[in-house]
Amino acid sequence: MTKAIVVGTGAGGGTAALELTQKGYEVVVLEAGKPFKPFTRHLTLTEPLRRLGLLGDERNIQRIFPHMNVTRSNKDLVLMRGITTGGSTVLSCGNMIRADHGFKDLGLDLTPEFEEIEKKIDIQPIPSKRWRPLTQKMYSSAKNLGLNPHPTPKAVKLHKCTSCGLCEMGCSTGARWDSNHFLNQALKMGAKLHTSSLVEKVLIENDCVKGVLIRSGSKTKTINGEVVVLAAGGIGTAQILKSSGLSAEDKLWVDIVLTLGGVYKGAKQLNEPPMVWYTEHEDYILSPYLDILSHFFHKPWRNVSLEDRVGIMVKLADMEKGTVFSDGSVQKDVNEEDKLKIDNAVSSARDIMKTSGVSGPFVRGMYNGGHLGGTVPLKKNDVSSMKPAGLPEGLWVADLSLAPRSQGLPTIMLTSALAMRVCKAITG
Q1: CB 3.0-4.6 Å disulfide test: which of 4, 136, 197, 317 passes with 406?
Q2: What are φ and ψ of residue 202, in 5° steps?
Q3: Within 10 Å of residue 163's Cβ, how many Cβ atoms?
Q4: Which residues fall within 8 angstroms of residue 148, CB to CB, at 6 or more apart?
Q5: Per-residue pLDDT tens for 360-400?
Q6: What count of Cα atoms within 13 Å lies in the side-chain half-sphere of residue 17?
Q7: Cα(358)–Cα(263) distance, integer angstroms
């Protein structure tokens, strides 16, 4: 039996673990973080501290929710990752959209994988009757402005959803799908999971993979395997490659998010799932969204309560210009071209709000990004093998690192689809 090591448990790793286990591989899954536990406290308890500015900066979110890894890639941009079982899927809004920008230019059609995912996961929009009245009003305004809004397809079991609005802090009721569903299926079929196991490097001899070196606490350990699948995300995968003496490209993209905040008395935007509808444009989407990160840690947002704050998110397909270093640090800017596109998007978001009765001051939130990809991008010549040139025998990548372009869209389905296609190449 061939032994496969899967590094990471997010959309890519969870999918790869299940696919390879189903094909009869002996699968060992390595996760750097601890088992996931959703956030179950009341955010309102921190409101007095927030108003006084005593919560500090965004890094302190890890004190109350340690699964969310937050770092700055420069003074303007915050990057977020889920370091836990389920990876960043446990921090997601559950949006399921067929994002595939840049792949058809390579000759890669992921339609079969998208269809397979849609059969495995129950995907449907949140009915408009469960939207807040203001969200319904903003949807109508977007429609009247010619922005063609659509209800967002979501992997949410409606009968379990309590409309707490805290999808990105983990779903405490189990309503929202995450990749632990795939991971747990793989474990039931015989795969083995090791948490708190940080992969430091891939072990290679004569251009063939032999296994990985992991660190768990103060101890290091070698795990041998004939196949290694890196699914640690655009940062984690690139870091492992560079620590192993292999190359990763300085083309990190993050799908930059900026939320425009306004004020509407009694909006209670958290009393519904986030991003229940969206408008799609060439380089970005707009969607109703209350940015928790900005609410708690962004000084310009401090004077408005959680009940009255209203947000519309801009999710931008940013320029593929970012570097991951072997120590895991990142250099990534919000460049002038990105800022101009965001300015244009913010103007549309403001129009939606104003025509829906939302008042100012209209204040921009923090630049942040959580879709991390592009560091091991596929080229045309790689598509038939689904393996970037230069990787040794037995080493594969199965996450957003393979995506050559920023998407400006939800990316869970894309990540899972890429992992499926890679596993088909591995198993033949």
Answers
A1: 317
A2: -90, 140
A3: 17
A4: 142, 279, 280
A5: 999 999 999 999 999 999 999 999 999 999 999 999 999 99
A6: 33
A7: 6
The 10s digit of each residue's pLDDT in 271-284 is 999 999 999 999 99
Q: Which residue has the tokens 């655009």?
A: 234
Q: Which of 383, 373, 411 is nearest to 103 (CA)?
A: 383
CA dihedral over 320, 325, 328, 331, signed as positive or negative: negative
- Whether 255 contacts 406, CB under 8 Å: yes
Contacts with 48 (C-beta within 8 Å, 6 or more apart), sequence order: none
Position 238 pLDDT exceeds 90: yes
Distance (Å, whole) CA 180 – CA 187 = 10
- pTM of the full predicted structure? 0.96
In terms of Cα–Cα distance, which of 133, 136, 132, 145 is closest to 355? 145
Question: Measuring CA to CA, which residue among 371, 364, 372 is closest to residue 291?
Answer: 364
- SS3 assignment, position 83: coil
Which residues are registered as beta bridge partners of 368?
A: 78, 257
Are 389 and 251 in contact, with CB atoms under 8 Å apart?
no
* Crossing angle between the packed helical segments 111-120 and 412-427, to the nearest 10 degrees: 110
Instruction: With a cut of 80, say whether residue 419 has pLDDT above it.
Output: yes
Q: Kindly report the backbone phi and psi dihedral angles of residue 26, in degrees, each rounded to the nearest multiple of 5, phi listed first.
A: -80, 110
| pLDDT on residue 44 | 63
Cis ω before 151 (30° cut-off from 0): no
Q: Write the CA distances from 145 to 129, 349, 350, 375, integer angstroms.
A: 22, 11, 12, 38
The single residue listed with the structure tokens 């070698």 is 222
Q: Are 395 and 413 in contact (CB under 8 A)?
A: no
| 214, 200 Cβ separation under 8 angstroms | yes
Q: Are 377 and 241 in contact, with CB atoms under 8 Å apart?
A: no
Residue in the structure block whose two tokens are 């995300």? 233
